Amino acid sequence: MSEINGKVVVITGASSGIGEATAKLLASRGAHVVMGARRVEKLEALASLIQAEGGSALYQQLDVTSIEQMQSIIRLAQSRFGRVDVIVNNAGVMPLSPLEALKIDEWNRISTSISAEFCTVLPQVYP
Ligand SMILES: NC(=O)c1ccc[n+]([C@@H]2O[C@H](COP(=O)([O-])OP(=O)(O)OC[C@H]3O[C@@H](n4cnc5c(N)ncnc54)[C@H](OP(=O)(O)O)[C@@H]3O)[C@@H](O)[C@H]2O)c1
């Protein structure tokens, strides 16, 4: 049996790309995936797909720049499955432009990827 089977895995940024693919793969191998991202309609569709294929998936809207929302998704996983085994700390943005383009809004959004790091300590801080 797969070592992934039965693991409780929180995945941030699960609404597209690497996070979505990770959720599908881990769920297909028996993990309980708890998915977060801002585009909740994408998460809803993904959870339905995973469940239709016999997998276990929950989702909750999540903006990783909000510590309260990160606490909330960890608590969701803990309350539904009793624990968190793994956090796939995937949410992030990667805007690319030359500095002289002065895309200050994009620069400020890079903090998303830094804020997301707090998620990795939440199970210890909020048992
Ligand atoms: N693809 C690459 O070549 C590459 C290379 C190096 C690093 N990475 C990193 O790998 C990760 C995934 O990349 P990807 O290519 O799969 O990109 P992607 O398709 O754009 O996925 C990014 C995910 O992050 C979520 N996200 C962004 N801001 C968020 C926020 N504030 N709160 C919660 N979720 C947020 C997005 O969901 P919502 O918009 O629905 O919130 C989306 O699900 C990113 O952190 C990226 O920086 C990717």
From TrEMBL:
Keywords: Oxidoreductase. It comes from the Bacteria. Pfam families: adh_short. InterPro entries: NAD(P)-bd_dom_sf, SDR_fam. Signal peptide: none annotated. Belongs to the short-chain dehydrogenases/reductases (SDR) family. This is NADP-dependent 3-hydroxy acid dehydrogenase YdfG. It comes from Paenibacillus favisporus.
